[in-house]
UniProtKB/TrEMBL annotation:
Catalysis: reaction(s): L-aspartate + O2 = iminosuccinate + H2O2
Function according to Swiss-Prot or TrEMBL: Catalyzes the oxidation of L-aspartate to iminoaspartate.
Protein name: L-aspartate oxidase
Family assignment from sequence similarity: Belongs to the FAD-dependent oxidoreductase 2 family. NadB subfamily.
A molecular function (GO) term: L-aspartate oxidase activity
Cited Gene3D superfamilies: FAD/NAD(P)-binding domain (3.50.50.60), Fumarate reductase/succinate dehydrogenase flavoprotein-like, C-terminal domain (1.20.58.100), Succinate dehydrogenase/fumarate reductase flavoprotein, catalytic domain (3.90.700.10)
Cofactor requirement: FAD
UniProt pathway annotation: Cofactor biosynthesis; NAD(+) biosynthesis; iminoaspartate from L-aspartate (oxidase route): step 1/1
Transmembrane segments: none
Compartments (UniProt record): Cytoplasm
Native species: Paenibacillus hexagrammi
Length: 534
């Protein structure tokens, strides 16, 4: 059983700090929500590393919004619903496609500079989009530009206080209401931060897997602390593996953006053969899960660890202009995007599920909100449409702040006292435990799954449960505890879903089964269940 709190603490013995809004995380969701909330409230922004470390920073492709006269919210909605494979919430998608353009205007007002062509936004197209609706910045550095603009603004905002290198261990709750968070400072001291509203913007859980495009900090903290606090966690079996991450000795799994295929790149197996026509009529622009599994099939058939992405037929000028970051990055490893085929393989990229929220980002725990990749708003369904993630963060960030304005102030402090129960220190080095967990997840809960493998993976993970009985004091220990929490939820949900849909593929149930599985799997501490979806 996963305990309610990771550490034994008596709140009366530690310092208390009060603020209006606590924002946990510093990607686009955290920065944007903090700035909007800071217009009328005091905000404390807590990040475990720094403002510039988040998944957003690595987002290359762009942000999807209806800008062009040839496009419409209806087209955007249809593309999102198709990609989501029957599990999107129509209401949530409707909110996204209609409110996305205003969110983009907010970003521009906050200093984001999107690329222009002849005075108009330079819109591009990505996989599974029917129209050109992706705004980008500096060619392929959209996330970095958004983070630059928003973080500069947060630093200058007198209503926003930023705590870098602080770790949120757990949320403090009583009677289904969130009072704030237990936070560990860089020197190891713990404090209770009390807030009228707490917003989780802590990103995804790419570090569940051995190979991921996510930074080291993506350890599923928000999902785990929300689960322990009593929030509902939904759709975590749906993990998106990006089909094309750089796969080269000595290089990290750097993302080779979907936009490269959008501009005409083709995929070739180790023999140099183009192969996507065997798998899908949309070829290289098929949905990500299809492309990722096709690549794995080709790698297995040719006994290789990678395939190639080839854009050498496009002009050198176009490639360098459109993909300067990817071009420069590959060059560091002796690979020239304009003349070389680039070796790529799938890597864990995005978690479609997360902390279940309503259309205003509120969770099942009062005063607790979730925004961005940590949340499950219902927008992504079983498979996220490319570039919808940045839009989702802005649209729901705005709505969360609207709801926060309506909250009455907290009247009292919670009465929380935990007896000191834990006496042992962790025995095995956490770095070894983490690597073992990642290998288990990659082998049994990766791109291709089966009942037998998932069960074996789940059993191996449960052997790590005694870790929760140890005294944790370091960030890496809390991170491992959170990863283990997320890994157990993901494998449990993947075992339960006996079909293939979107980012969840079962070799023993290879077909989509709408008759039995047009529903969500919702996990709540103590009572994991399948929820019917209408």
């Amino acid at each position: 059983m996963i305990p309610r709190y990771l550490v034994d603490v008596d709140l009366d013995t530690i310092p208390h700090i009060h603020t209006d809004v606590i924002v946990i995380g510093a990607g686009i969701a955290g920065l944007f929500t903090a700035l909007r909330a800071g217009e009328s409230k005091k905000v404390l922004m807590i990040t475990k590393k720094s403002l510039l470390d988040s998944n957003t920073r690595y987002a290359q492709g762009g942000i999807a919004a209806v800008i062009s006269d040839e496009d419409s919210p209806e087209y955007h909605m249809q593309d999102t619903l198709v990609a989501g494979a029957g599990l999107c919430s129509r209401e949530a998608v409707d909110v996204l496609v209609h409110e996305g353009p205003n969110g983009v205007q907010d970003l521009i007002r906050m200093g984001t500079q999107f690329d222009l062509e002849n005075g108009e936004f330079a819109l591009t197209k990505e996989g599974a989009h029917s129209q050109r609706r992706i705004l980008h910045a500096h060619g392929d550095a959209t996330g970095a530009e958004i983070v630059r603009a928003l973080s500069e603004r947060t630093k200058q905002d007198p209503n926003i206080e930023i705590w870098d290198d602080h770790f949120v261990i757990d949320l403090i709750t009583e009677d289904g209401e969130c009072y704030g968070a237990l936070v560990q400072k860089p020197d190891g001291q713990r404090v209770f931060v009390r807030g009228n509203a707490t917003v989780l913007c802590s990103g995804g859980a790419g570090q569940l897997f051995r190979y991921t495009t996510n930074p080291d900090i993506a350890t599923g903290d928000g999902i785990a602390i929300a689960y322990r606090a009593g929030a509902h966690v939904q759709d975590v079996e749906f993990i998106q593996f990006h089909p094309t991450a750089l796969c080269y000795p000595g290089a990290p799994r750097f993302l080779i953006s979907e936009a490269v295929r959008g501009e005409g790149a083709i995929l070739r197996n180790i023999k140099g053969e183009r192969f996507m026509e065997k798998y899908h009529p949309q070829l290289e622009l098929a949905p990500r899960d299809v492309v990722a599994r096709a690549i794995v099939d080709e790698m297995e058939n040719t006994k290789s660890t990678f395939v190639y992405i080839d854009i050498t037929h496009e002009s050198e000028e176009l490639v360098k202009h459109r993909f300067p970051t990817i071009y420069e990055y590959c060059l560091q490893y002796g690979l020239d995007l304009t003349t070389d085929w680039i070796p790529v393989a799938p890597a864990a990229h995005y978690m479609m599920g997360g902390v279940k929220t309503d259309l205003y980002g509120e969770t099942a725990v009062k005063r607790l909100f979730a925004c961005g990749e940590v949340s499950s708003t219902g927008v992504h369904g079983a498979n996220r449409l490319a570039s919808n993630s940045l839009s989702e963060a802005i649209v729901f960030g705005r709505r969360i702040v609207e709801r926060i304005q309506e909250l009455p102030p907290l009247e009292r402090s919670p009465q929380l006292e935990v007896d000191a129960l834990r006496t042992e220190s962790p025995k095995q080095a956490v770095v070894e435990k983490r690597l073992k967990l990642q290998k288990v997840m990659l082998r049994y809960a990766g791109l291709k799954r089966s009942a037998q493998g998932l069960q074996k993976g789940y059993e191996e993970l449960t052997r790590q449960l005694p870790f929760y009985d140890t005294i944790m004091t370091k960030r890496e220990e809390y991170e491992f505890a959170n990863l283990l929490n997320c890994a157990l939820l993901t494998t449990m949900a993947a075992i339960a879903r006996e079909e293939s849909r979107g980012g969840h593929y079962r070799e023993d149930f290879p077909q989509r089964d709408d008759e039995h599985w047009l529903k969500h799997i919702v996990c709540k501490r103590g009572e994991d269940r399948v929820e019917e979806w209408i």
